[in-house]
Amino acid sequence: MEVKLAETWKCIYSIRMREFESFLVEENRMIGRAIMFDSNEWEILLDLVSDGILITDHACNIVKVNKAYERMVNRTAEQLIGTNINDMEWRKNNESSAVKVLETRTPVTTMQQTVDENGKKEFISTGMPMFNEHNEIMYVVNCVRDMTDLHELKRTLEQVKQMNQSYLEELKGLKERAIDLDGLVAHSKEMINVLTAAAKVASVDAQVMLRGESGVGKEVVAKFIHKNSTRTGETFIKVNCGAIPDSLMESEFFGYESGAFTGANKEGKPGVFELANHGTLFLDEIGDMTLDLQVKLLRVLEEQEFRRVGGVKTIRSDVRIIAATNQNLEEMVEKKTFRKDLYYRLQVYPIHIPPLRKRKDDIPYLIQHLLETHQRKRAIQIRIDPDVVELLCRYDWPGNIRELTNVVERMAIICTNNEILTEHVPQEIFGNFHQIVPKGLQEELELFEYQKLKRALALHKSTRKAALALQISQPTLVRKMKLYEQKYATDQ
């Protein structure tokens, strides 16, 4: 079977460049060189096309497909050629461009959907008729494009837009309610979720359990809840349960009467439950509380009353409890080191605060907030180089916000001309070079260069980009890093 090569190619081209359609139709009648379907030139020509090509005859029989079409439908040319379009499985629920072209004798575009073991696929197929000198359709060239990934990307984009709109509405609602953020930075979607949850529970007088690693900002969230609750004008008291000796913990919580124990104040002393009456008591590191005190805390939560150490008078106290821990309370309950009944009493409204490495979108805003705080203290203006911010965003911050606060303050102190540059980034983040004592000028220069190379690699994440930034060749950078790591890395 023969077909005119020039006619076929121009039909494919016209699908992509419709403005030449009338010209190509006219050319179909004039060009006469023909070759066989199995010629090398014909095979190469079709396989160069990135879209799928399906050619059918006047009876809808498949006479040729290219490699792209084989990949799209996951079938070989041997399986497809000779098959009639109308007998194919996907035709049950789809309109064929080839069939429509034969019916209308004009170019036709159709949408098609198929389902196989890889899932649902979507295609757009444009068919172009090829006429002979008697104005009869000899072949239909169908150009097929897989739209699955594009449509999936579009759906994902719509979901992202909806999520962003939801976050904007939540933030708008928070602003309309005049919520006091008080240093709480929430720009990542993770922290917006935390902020939204905290805002919801703030107006409800329920117990809250803040979970998260040390240094993630549990106290800041606790203060946020207090300041936006009905108790905002009352006392907020923080107690670190891990910092109070076991022997003093009960008296710190419930106070004591005069003469209750040796060394006690003659007038006695109120405890934090008494001092926080009508306010909020933030119990940090609740997992460090002794089992004996856990029993007494549970009684206070249930009955809202207690007695001072050495006292007989019952004192009533209306206190809201916000607890926090970085420990696995569920595991502690299993091991019976934390009371199950107290766990359920405190876990009324749990909020998990993610670590800084899981919400890196917040880092630039936290840096800016910390710098502004430092600037107010010292009454100066400090500029930070964008490269420094990018470097800090790449670090995982095992110490979370507490570590970031320490680093930002240190850079603000040591920087010159009130400008924080990459050389002011603490060396321990990218290598403890300061632990190596140079043996001479040459070694000091090498250590300085090693430090620069490591920071460039940390910033740019590839040897090619780092070499380009340092204005050296990539082989030179790789060679120097290998040399320095062999010489100095084991000393760190």
From TrEMBL:
Signal peptide: none annotated. GO terms for molecular function: ATP binding; DNA binding. It comes from Brevibacillus fluminis. The keyword ATP-binding applies. InterPro entries: AAA+_ATPase, AAA_lid_NorR, Homeodomain-like_sf, HTH_TyrR, P-loop_NTPase, PAS, PAS-like_dom_sf, Sigma_54_int. It comes from the Bacteria. Residues 184-413 form the Sigma-54 factor interaction domain. Residues 150-177 form a coiled coil. Keywords: Aromatic hydrocarbons catabolism, ATP-binding, Coiled coil, Nucleotide-binding, Transcription, Transcription regulation. PANTHER family: C4-DICARBOXYLATE TRANSPORT TRANSCRIPTIONAL REGULATORY PROTEIN DCTD, TRANSCRIPTIONAL REGULATORY PROTEIN. One of its GO terms (biological process) is regulation of DNA-templated transcription. This is HTH-type transcriptional regulatory protein TyrR. The keyword DNA damage does not apply. Residues 38-84 form the PAS domain.
